[in-house]
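Re-run with default settings, no changes from the original entry. Doing this only to confirm the output is reproducible before filing.
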Amino acid sequence: MTGTLRRPKRGLWRRIVDFAFTDVKTLVEGGLDGDAIERLEEVLLEADFGVDITMELVDDLERAASRGAIATESDLRDVLRARLAAVLASADPGAPAAGRAGLLHAGTEPAVVLVLGVNGVGKTTTVAKLAARLQRGGEGVLLAAADTFRAGAQEQLQAWAKRLGAEFVGGTAGADPASVAFDAVAAARARGTSWVLVDTAGRLHTQSDLMRELVKIDRVLGRQVDGAPHERLLVVDATSGQNVMNQARQFGAALDLTGLVLAKFDSTARAGTVVAVVRDLSVPVRFLGVGESPEDLERFSPDRYLDKILAADA
């Protein structure tokens, strides 16, 4: 992949300086007065950092300013970056296997990735993007269409499998999704395919029957392959603000999530969602969706993320 993480329109740093301080000399010379604090809090909350991390960031800036540690705009940015980096480092996803597209792997085959989320967030497209990443590393991939309820779901994933040249297993309309997952693993073993990516039906946390179904799929996979599913990736819409937090909490209560995929990240200025999820839920962000093509899925890099949102010219 040759693309790089695309910068949200009018970056966070520019909004902080332009709206909260107008001129960083405001902070350097006079410290954080009440008006500046209120404006800074507003910028951070609008970017979906959440109340807790917003208060922590403001407190850090106040302490740094009071001890004379902020003399330039660069100093101010460094204080923010250090605090955000510490938060992002608090949720370690573990060590992905070398050459495995940034995905966790327990060493058994096939490795299994379970992809879940609410309706309309882009799960199926994300599955295709993950498959493309694995294929670029020389891995064999099977796509499993465990969404047997949504009209056209099977056909959509099958079309992606054909486009990518990947294996495919689906089921009849209304079939037990867990049976599709079972058949997919069996087919992968028979065909010598290294990875199984399981696409599931969208569901809300209030749909208790569908949540139980998801747990059943997870359990069936675990019985077939030691340690499976090796990844449980929750796909969320990065533009949906605090709904990301709610979804992560509810799905995390049902299954032990290994990470989040933020779809539509290129369309949002709500960069704080990443930090808020890691800070409050200890669930790492694993990938960012930055477009619709199979190549538009980027492995999340804290350093690159901070470079972008705190870029001086953003």
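The first strand starts at residue 111 and ends at 116. The chain has a mean pLDDT of 84.
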